[in-house]
Amino acid sequence: MDSRFWSAFGNWQTIVLDLALLLGTCLFLKLPKEKKGDSAYWLPFLILSYIAIYQNFGAYTNYNYEFKKAVNAYLGNTENPKFNLWLFNIAERQILAILYLLLIKSWLGPSMKKYVDWMIMIFVAVALTLQISGIELMYTEQPIIFAIGANMILVACGLYFIGLITNENYLQSQPTRLLSFWGTTVLLFYFSLTYIYAVTLLYLYRENLTLGKSLANIKYVMQVIKLCMLLLLIAAPFLTKFFDREPLHDPA
Amino acid sequence: MIPPDNQIYIIIFSTIFLGGLMSTFVVAMVFIHRQRQAQSRQKMDQMQVEFEKTLRHVENEIHQETLTQIGRDLHDNIGQLLSLTKLNLNSSKPEKHLEARECVNEAIKEVRALSKTLNLDWVESLSLDEYIAQQLQRIQATGFCETSLQSDRSFAELKKEEKLVLIRVVQECLNNAIKHAQPDRIAIRISKNGRARHIEIEDNGQGFDTSKQSNGSGMYNLSKRMETIGGKFSLSSAVGKGTLVNLELPFSV
Q1: By CA distance, what is B33's nearest residue in A?
Q2: Which ipTM value was assigned to this complex?
Q3: In chain B, how many domains are there?
């Protein structure tokens, strides 16, 4: 193993993520058969696996510079061949945002699910339009697409909280004993705390690298908390002592 | 253009502000949830009290209705049978004595059947369909009007309180039709769709103008009663075109 490999794959974020994927896989495999087919468990597992795969792929692009350069060239980016923003944009800012919306949707009441469906459709349409029209290229910073995705996730979180205080099923339960409550809270904090950082990313790295790195650390910490949350969601059937069953959970 | 230093402060301030805002939001939501939960529990308790009260009323009314029916049966059936027995016994012919014995046996059967209706145990042993069929048969037997019943047995499974309320509401609807509508025909249809079961009570009587305010509280009470078991009451009628009552009860989850 050369030093390039370790610098690409050996950072603490990637190691934590790989360990989380390993633990998540073990927990998911331990679930009873009928729970494995239940979206309340496979969706968090899918998100966890997806994050691990694209982050490792990101690390691989840093390891295999020629590959990264070729993809950048294919997308028309010959100016900054070292960047792998295209992967970050597609994988995190677009697909992951949709997956989070689907996760929040699974915790909403039937009357609110349709709003999330609309948000996903609008998000996909706007993201495609912005990229095809060249307003936000795939290989450059995409603050507008991120802002729309993050805002939609924040709105979806808001819908969850509205359901929490209006839906009879939620009113019967104790929110602090619901994983959906903690999940939504983590997503709410993640997207609001990293919001400023995400839209000012390049500016901060140009103007004040120290502050940029500090804000990046907030993001990394929040990411670890988010991974823990996903693991808890997968492990929910083993934690019945601490968490209650989701009141709106539909096993179908 | 804002100087870079100020922009940095704005970024730091915005991040802290957003974090604080979100924390306040989540704490406020938990606080509101607690308040609403307390209100919801209070409402549920009130609804339970209301439900029990309605159920007691319904039971009383069914008792009253049953007693009225017993009175009628005592007068029309058993009274007649006993009079016939007396007449037969007064006769010197032996075949008349045999007839008298048959009449007494018949009267004993009738009394036994009546005694069973004195408490509400019959509600458990009788299905709603059977009850409705009995009621319609009784109406038809009086010669008041023709009756018909179509049922897909959607109400075969009911909780006792649901059955009690439905029996009372059906009773009241039939009473209303007999008292006010003077129909030639009363038809009851029992059916279901995806989420709910329906009882439709239709008569071809006088009907009435539903837009006119009624002095009585009969319809309101029926509607309220259906609500206590999670159901709905709806009525459509027009002068000279009869009345259609629809009782809807969702399937229990």
Answers
A1: A165
A2: 0.76
A3: 2
